[in-house]
Amino acid sequence: MQTALAHNLCLAARPTAARVVGGRRVPALRSASTTRCQAATVLGRAAADDVVTIRFDSKGKPVVSVGGTSASAGTDEKAELAELANQFNIWNSALQTGDPEQVANLYADDGILLPTVSNQLRPDHAGKVDYFTSFLQLKPFGTIDDSFVRFLTPERDVGSNSGIYTFALVKEGKPVKVQARYSFIYRKIDGVWKITEHHSSAMPEPVAEPLDEVRGLFDIWNNALQTGDPEQVANLYADDGLLLPTVSNKIRPCHESKVDYFTSFLQLKPYGTIDERNVRFLNPAKTLAANSGIYTFNIVKEGKPASVQARYSFIYRKIGGAWKIVEHHSSAMPELPAAAPAAAAPAAAAKEPVAA
């Protein structure tokens, strides 16, 4: 059968005339028997589902090669990568059982664990059980934020999953979330994936609290005022952002109208200071936030320094990963300052008696 296939795949037995292959002139073949020999030899090594390819080198000599079906190979590798990626879900499900033995059993006998919150290396089963006995008290549930899954050997029996995960925990009775970096190295042992290396580490850069980020948006706006550039200030507002300014009756709904307002306002050389504020998120996704309170502006009016206190509301929306002002309402303090107590009238001078 293979010989018949070889004959079918080979070129004609006799030399052929020069021909055009792939857009270029290829010399005549001098020996078809060589091609038959190559094809027969290769087919002797080929599996039933292998693809046999005949190509021509730069001299027109036929080269016969065997390769697995590319579509099938690609599909197999994707399925195996998905299986490798799923090992995290198996590990995470073991955490949900609350059983440290069940978690530790997912590691190879020589597996190493370098945990996030312990200085101790855990090279053996007992050490891993000890760590997970404590860790599971936090009721951890992991979610992968970013991952890279790949094989480390051509045989696809060693693979890695590295990235960033977040754990939802219960700490001191309160729900918290902790983000960390991870590396899982897996080895297939007797057909089963086992963890041979697990390194988990805290994020090395300090992460700002979300509300701190919102608080800092006022400083960004105030710093833009110091540039004296109305365009730079107006660019901090969303395209549909509204400005209701302190000293203008007009609502400013578009970029041009905001530039118009700040062109005048910046002539006062304003510098803002927050006296009182309340910062909070307005939706569960934390993409809408408010900063409301009282601020005081130091300004220069008619060549003289002055200060003006006002109430403010900034509403921010995260758009394309950046915070933008969607509503800014600023108003004068509605109550007049309490009048200072009147100074006591000076006592009338006693009249001296008129001499008779």
From TrEMBL:
Record domain Calcium/calmodulin-dependent protein kinase II association-domain: where: 82-204, 213-334
Domain of life of the source: Eukaryota
Matching InterPro entries: Ca/CaM-dep_prot_kinase-assoc, NTF2-like_dom_sf, Steroid_delta5-4_isomerase
Membrane spanning residue stretches: none
Gene Ontology terms for molecular function: calcium/calmodulin-dependent protein kinase activity; calmodulin binding
A Pfam family it matches: CaMKII_AD
UniProt-listed NCBIfam families: SgcJ/EcaC family oxidoreductase
Protein name as it appears in the record: Calcium/calmodulin-dependent protein kinase II association-domain domain-containing protein
Species name: Chlorella vulgaris
